[in-house]
Amino acid sequence: MKKPVTTLCYIENDDSYLMLHRVKKKNDLNEHKWVGIGGHAEEGESPEDCLLREAREETSLTLTSYRFRGLVTFVSDKWGTEYMCLYTADGFQGILSDCDEGCLEWVPKKEIPRLNLWKGDLIFFRLLEENVPFFSLKLCYEGDRLILWQLNGMDMGADLPDEEKWKEILDSLRAI
Amino acid sequence: MKKPVTTLCYIENDDSYLMLHRVKKKNDLNEHKWVGIGGHAEEGESPEDCLLREAREETSLTLTSYRFRGLVTFVSDKWGTEYMCLYTADGFQGILSDCDEGCLEWVPKKEIPRLNLWKGDLIFFRLLEENVPFFSLKLCYEGDRLILWQLNGMDMGADLPDEEKWKEILDSLRAI
């Protein structure tokens, strides 16, 4: 049985993230969605062990600089609960290869909201861009619909924040 | 099957941590050891959901202020791999009750190294006291013996650091 612990990594280059368009796997939780690279931890692996292995397997790149940015508890009525260790990486070696699980593409950060994403991913992309301290984000879905999210244990409703709400959230995170 | 994701929390009061002496459960990974409170995440629970439930179940306390300090990957040749979300809590309400899993005791922080602990716990106790940013710590055991540890993906050998090594570690963590 696969562990419910996974890694999810957004590799950065200039102002782009390396995005994976999941169009190759059958019966895929992320079918047709754009996500980062990563996958399930294997027996005995730390999140960093898993991160480095998955980066090699999916991109042929060796990560040389990365940061653990947050833990995302992904709860789906269809797929169960997954604990995603969220990383960004800003250093790597090697030459990007094709990936069995989808199409890899460098996407400018400002174009990312136009992609077919899990809606809640917009929340962590903003938190990453704002460079807030480590966060714990819970995202609950019914099918594709975000029905509830929590940040560091605080209930945040179902909707994405407007700018006023974001200001409040960011102020409170930076005061920690 | 129990999820391999758990919480481990050290509740603080003055200069003490609330420690749990695990002397009540049979076939217990932690038998006779002193640990924090916590336990396995249940379906749909974020680490914070799990933390608050376990605190209530094991101590009758309601945590009102807590921080997610690190992720500990505990690898045992006997028990497999567990991902422990490590918290400290400095706010709580209620009256401390007995715990089914062991004896609860407030232990002054400076006396903690004298307790029967997992050896690697001394590493995270130091990291907590030094108030370093969020960390990922991997601890590998053969039986009771620490055979390898890693900090934020860096190999650190099998031994606990001496003071010189600690200075180097803390400087590098604070430079992140």
From TrEMBL, chains A, B:
Gene3D superfamilies, sorted: Nucleoside Triphosphate Pyrophosphohydrolase
Domain Nudix hydrolase: 2-130
Domain of life: Bacteria
One GO BP: DNA repair
A GO CC annotation given for this chain: cytoplasm
InterPro entries named in the record: Mutator_MutX_prot (IPR003562), NUDIX_hydrolase-like_dom_sf (IPR015797), NUDIX_hydrolase_dom (IPR000086)
GO molecular function: 8-oxo-7,8-dihydroguanosine triphosphate pyrophosphatase activity; metal ion binding
Keywords, sorted A to Z: Hydrolase, Magnesium, Metal-binding
Name of the protein this chain belongs to: 8-oxo-dGTP diphosphatase
